[in-house]
Structure formats: C-alpha cells, structure tokens
Amino acid sequence: xxxxxxxxxxxxxxxxxxxxxxxxAEGNDISNSEITVSGxxxxxxxxxxxxxxxxxxxxxxxxxxxxxxxxVEGMQYALCWGLCLNPSTSGQTSGxxxxxxGQTDQESFSGHCYPSNNQGTSQLKYTFxxxxxxxxxxxxxxxxxxxxxxxxQLGLGGVSAPYPNPAQDFTAxxxxxxxxxxxxxxxxxxxxxxxxxxxxxxxxTTQVQxxxxxxxxxxxxxxxxxxxxxxxxxxVRR
Length: 238
Hints:
This protein is about 10% helix and about 50% strand. By secondary structure, it is mostly beta strands.
C-alpha cells in the first residue's frame, strides 16, 4: 500500500513539473517571473515578448490568458498568441495554438500596452495552460511608461525609445529636437563597433534601417552636442 501511495505521489509530482517554459530573447528562463518593459507616453505601443517552449514529449494545445492586475487610466492592452486580439482595458483569453513536443515558438506570443499619452506603471499577468497538461506557467509584466527625463531635463527636447524593439528590418525614434542642437542616435554591436550613426532633426520620426544587421544584441546611445544622454539595448532578430 505504501509503495502504491509513493508511486502515485511521484506521478503527481511529475505532472506538476513545468512542461511549458518561457524564455527571453537572450536565452534566460523567465518562467513564473516578473519582468519590466519600458516605454514613452508618446509611443504607439510598448511590447513584452517571450519564447514559448513545450518541454514535454507530447504535442500540446496551448492557451494564454491575460489578467490586468493594475492599470493606469486611459491605457489599453492586447494579447497576441498566434492571432492578435483587439485592444481592451480588461483581461483577454487567446485562441488555442498547437506546439509540438520539444518545439519552441519564438514569434507568436507578445503582450501589448497602448499608453495613449498616459504615464504610470500597469501590471499584467499572463498564464499559459495546455489542454493536455493540468499545470500552468505565468509571466508577470510591468509596463513602465514614463517620459525620458534625462533628455528633457537637459533642455534637449525628447527622444522616445526605439520601436519596434526587437527590430527586424528597421526601428524608429520619435523626437523633438530644438533648433541648434546636434542630436544623433549611435548604434553599437556587442563588440563596441559603431554600426549606425543617424542624425535626428526637429520634430518627427526617424527610421533606422536594421535589415542588414546580424541578429543579436546591440546598444544605442542618444547623443546631443557630443554628449551621450541615454544608452540602452536594441535587439535585432529575423
């Protein structure tokens, strides 16, 4: 009898182990984690992404549910898992999508926050389940929307974070550069080699082509009159 109970307990433990895992673009396991993505109030959207892996030996039909934990008034959210749902102020449930045993899907999942010129931090919780598995894995995302004070406080106008990021063929910066200021975006690869140097002028949006850059991690700096006022990461993928 004891052996039977031990065997059943072992089966229950195995079934509860993570059969779906979540990974970021740098290969870090972010299953059941909390992450923060940053954006500007003027950005059209701020996006959180994750690679979804079926760790089991069975084909899974996966569904994603989003829950709005805290929300800034005026912001909306959308969930993409295969298909993208329309923006809403409430949580959403995706359609189902098949993922074969051992397969990693790098493209289909993303969470979207639409700031609509509002500032603050909204938190959403994404829960991944499968019809063939009685467990779940979660990802909690803080959408941190705020103006880039380091640029504005210096009287240098405003420069948004790049969008899209990760980039494929291009990324774009929204900006408002006062007359007489030499503002540039400089992009460097992981070895510190400059691969782009693009001038930003006046108010508008400037695209930076990335279609000829190798996939990977890059760093961009906003430089005004020779002074770097902000530096952050830019991902390029295919």
